[in-house]
Every structure is written in C-alpha cells, then in structure tokens.
Write a structure and sequence with these properties.
The chain is mainly beta. It is about 10% helix and about 45% strand. Strands 1, 2, 3, 5, 10, 11, 12 and 14 form an eight-stranded antiparallel sheet that branches. The protein has a six-stranded antiparallel sheet with strand order 4-13-6-7-8-9, with no helix packed on it. Strand 11 and strand 12 (about 155-165) form a beta hairpin.
C-alpha cells in the first residue's frame, strides 16, 4: 500500500511539473513583436495602440506575417472609458480563414469568452465567464492556440481551456470581420494596448 501511495504521489508531482513547464517563462529571443498601423480613431505610437471611443466598433488589423500554429500571443490591455468590451482580439486558429475573437468586458462590461464556437458567441458558450474590469487598469493577456485547444491566461490565471476538435469555429456576424485574421477592437469604448508579441511553441 505504501508503495502504491508513493507511486501515485510521484505521478501527481510529475503532472504538476509538466503543467509548470508548459507555461514556462520564454526567453526574449523567442518573441516577435507585433506592430499595428493606425491613425485618427486608431492610433499606433511607440509600440502602443490606442482606440478612440467609437459609436460602435473601432479597431485595427495587423498587416504583417501571421503566427503559425501552434503559437502563443501576449499583450496588455486596458479600458480608458466606456462600459463594454475593451479587448476584442481576433486571431487565426486552424488557418487565416478560420478565426475566433477573445472578448474581455463585453455585454455590459463583465463578459469574457470566445466568439464564436458552434455558432454561439462569447456570451453563451463553454468559454464564457464573468470578471469585473476597472477603467485605467492594465490587464495581462496570454493566448495559446494549439492543435486541438485554446488556452487563455488573464493576469497569470488560466481562465479558458477550450477544446477545438470537432468544433465549428468562426467570427460573430458583423464588423469584427474587418479585424480578421489578426486584429484588435473595442465596442463603444476607449482602449489601449501594449506589449503585443507572439512566439512559436511546441504543442
């Protein structure tokens, strides 16, 4: 019995180590910075993107080389004013034609999730949860796009682990398509983004 308990304990430690290694801190040389264009309502300056308060959706699309699966993308975002989503990160999943959007602060300010999975948007699928976001506060976002799942960390906390195998993935109908395959948007909200970069990873 003691031997069996020891084996179980070692297996649990091994699993914890694997999880820790999976989210190790990468070296700076592994990262590629993302640069966004923009002027007027979407302004890019010194590595920081600012989206002015729009009547509806305001955003900017990345025009450079896209990350290749599997990859990790990270950034920091904050809401300056407004009461809806301040981070709508559209990203490629299986191909540049198949994208999702990570929403932070939607549907009145507190909804987080992925749009859309099996036709259900970020407010009504398995990835949906709720979080209070403060204006003027930076939030660190880490997104991992793997072969059969998507992982999201918010301020270091793993908040979404979404399987993608067998799922229909696509964007919510509307202007968010203008941000595909990789872009940032906000809805009736003034927002800022910085530290945008990506790296290739091993699934």
């Amino acid at each position: 019995m003691k031997t069996l308990l020891l084996v179980i304990a070692l297996l649990l430690v091994s699993c914890e180590c694997q999880r820790a290694i999976a989210w190790r801190v990468p070296s700076e040389s592994e990262w590629t910075a993302l640069s966004f264009g923009g002027e007027g309502a979407a302004e890019w300056s010194e590595g920081q993107l600012r989206l002015d308060l729009g009547v509806e959706l305001n955003g900017s699309r990345f025009g450079g080389e896209l990350p290749k699966l599997p990859y990790e993308l990270e950034l920091k975002a904050r809401r300056l004013s407004g009461s809806d989503f301040f981070c709508g990160l559209t990203f490629p999943v299986r191909s540049p034609e198949e994208c999702l959007t990570l929403i932070l602060g939607g549907w009145g300010g507190g909804t987080v999730g992925l749009s859309s999975i099996d036709g259900k948007d970020a407010s009504e699928n398995d990835s949906t949860f709720y979080r209070n976001f403060e204006n003027q506060q930076w939030y660190a976002i880490q997104l991992r796009v793997l072969k059969e799942r998507i992982e999201v960390r918010l301020d270091g906390e793993l908040v979404i682990t979404q399987p993608t195998a067998g799922k229909t993935l696509g964007l919510r109908p509307g202007m968010i398509h203008l941000c595909a395959p990789l872009g940032l948007a906000a809805w009736q909200t003034e927002a800022e983004f910085k530290g945008l970069r990506w790296r290739s990873i091993t699934d």
